[in-house]
Amino acid sequence: MTPLKEIGEMQISVADHDYFFRPSFSAMASIGSGSEIVTTYAVLNGFEVSQLIASIVDVYGTFPEWLIKTIKKPILGKKVLSAAMHVMQCCCSDDITPLVGEWVPGKKGVVYRNGKMPIANIIIIGRELAEHGIMGKAKLRKLQRHEFNGTNSYTREFEVFEYINGARTHFDMSRIEAEQLTMTEYQLLLKAKYPEEKGFTREEYDELMDADDRLQARLIAEEEAKRVANGR
């Protein structure tokens, strides 16, 4: 099967085996509950680390260099890697242990046993799959008047079934077909079926306001110049 990179599909070939990844709604549901999906996404995108750094800066007024190594290994290493491995496995029907490695008991606790893929690549791919499966990467115009929607701007849970049900309703799909959509694909289908409404995005609105301010400033300057020229 040829992967469609535009909607988040990937294929990784190692030796004589091809691993196919699809960050579908069904795959995202396999990550865990709605709140666990959000937590996994946050871990992959460094939310917890950012919060920790902000707390440290509040206490010290800066970020001490001696703390960098202290937080890097336990937080950026184990937790992020585990989240990326989990997302990748959820998006693939094959056992990907030979590819991404595994966590095994060791003398000093659980240790990571390498697979064929470098750790950095695992984290990058896991993050990319989560992005296509949870947030979506379709280029959509977000109107300025919809940017501050109160409680709609943030959610603690990712309700997979709502998107599956939405796809069945909007596109007359079966449940199986809807479950195989990625969030990016879902967004693109919505964009194709429902033309983007008219209005200004935040950037377009700001640009218009800046232009208006410049025009007003020029008119005021011209009026002032006329007043001075007339000796008033």
Draw up the topology in text.
Layout: E1 10-14, E2 17-21, H1 25-31, H2 34-44, H3 47-60, H4 68-90, H5 97-100, E3 102-106, E4 109-113, H6 119-135, H7 160-171, H8 175-179, H9 183-193, H10 202-229
Antiparallel strand pairs: 1-2, 3-4
Topology as a string of helices (H) and strands (E):
EEHHHHHEEHHHHH
Overall spatial form: extended
Secondary-structure-based class equals mainly alpha
Write out the strand line-up for the largest beta sheet, numbering strands in chain order. 1-2
Helix content: 55-70%
How many strand segments? 4
Count of separate structural domains: 2
The gyration radius over C-alpha positions equals 25 Å
Relative strand content: 5-15%
Unreliably modeled segments = 143-153
Distance between the amino and carboxyl termini: 80 Å
Q: Number of helical segments? A: 10
- Rounded average pLDDT: 80
Summarize the biggest pleated sheet: 2 strands, antiparallel
What does this structure look like?
The chain has helices at 25-31, 34-44, 47-60, 68-90, 97-100, 119-135, 160-171, 175-179, 183-193, 202-229; strands at 10-14, 17-21, 102-106, 109-113. By secondary structure, it is mostly helical. It has 2 domains: 5-146 and 153-193, no CATH class; 203-232. It has a two-stranded antiparallel ribbon. A two-stranded antiparallel ribbon has the order 3-4. Strand 3 (102-106) and strand 4 form a beta hairpin. The longest helix is centred in the C-terminal third of the chain and has 28 residues, at 202-229. InterPro entries: DUF6246.
